[in-house]
Design goal:
The chain is mainly beta. The protein contains 2 helices and 11 strands. The protein has an 8-stranded antiparallel β-barrel with strand order 1-4-5-6-7-8-9-11. The radius of gyration is 23 Å and the shape is elongated.
């Protein structure tokens, strides 16, 4: 190899990003879908007066995220996801109604095992949850519920697997709850995602 070839290789090395370096930091996009289990909803009109108890059918969830990876271990994202579940029972009677919740969360993640393809992760996020809930016993004509934007918290755990230089598949569990004293509404979700690293 002569000096001319060495110069060309040096110039190419300076201007062409290394594939490994690209994966350590930068933006990413993700689409995700899965299955949601909605916890029983307990409404207390007053702290000393127990109100309605509502149970729900399982349902699907879907969403997406735009994020930024700081290094191989830390990343953050803005995640939008939605789910809608039908009412199953109200106070142990057959019920009608539904709950819909769209969450807008700022999540922060820690990825374990950065040097291998399979990476477990933990995440925590806060944001707003646009929620609409209506319900009534099947034999009743009067519906109850609420519609509001609540402060939400989600906790996430799972693992991702690198299938390509820029593509990760992930499978995780997400717990989403509304931080409100008067309502107790929680979602337990299995989520499968496809993430593209720019």
């Amino acid at each position: 190899m002569n000096c001319y070839n060495l110069v060309i290789l040096a110039v190419l090395g300076a201007v062409v990003p290394d594939a490994a370096a690209q994966s350590t930091s930068g933006f990413y996009g993700e689409i995700a879908a899965g299955y949601s289990f909605t916890s029983n909803y307990h409404q207390d009109d007053f702290l000393w007066d127990e109100g309605s108890r509502v149970s729900f059918d399982g349902t699907s969830n879907f969403g997406g995220a735009i994020g930024y990876r700081f290094n191989q271990r830390y990343r953050t994202e803005i995640n939008i996801s939605g789910r809608k579940a039908d009412v199953n029972q109200v106070d142990n009677q057959a019920g009608v109604g539904s709950t819909r919740a769209t969450s807008y969360m700022a999540n922060f993640y820690f990825d374990f095992n950065p040097d291998v393809q399979l990476k477990p992760y933990l995440g925590l996020g806060l944001g707003g949850v646009d929620t609409d809930l209506s319900y009534r016993p099947e034999a009743d004509s009067i519906s109850e519920g609420f519609s509001d934007v609540e402060l939400g918290l989600n906790v996430i755990a799972g693992a991702s697997y690198r299938v390509h230089d820029r593509v990760d598949l992930s499978l995780g569990f997400r717990y989403l709850t509304l931080l409100d004293l008067w309502e107790e509404l929680e979602f337990h979700e299995l989520v499968f995602g496809v993430r593209y690293n720019f």
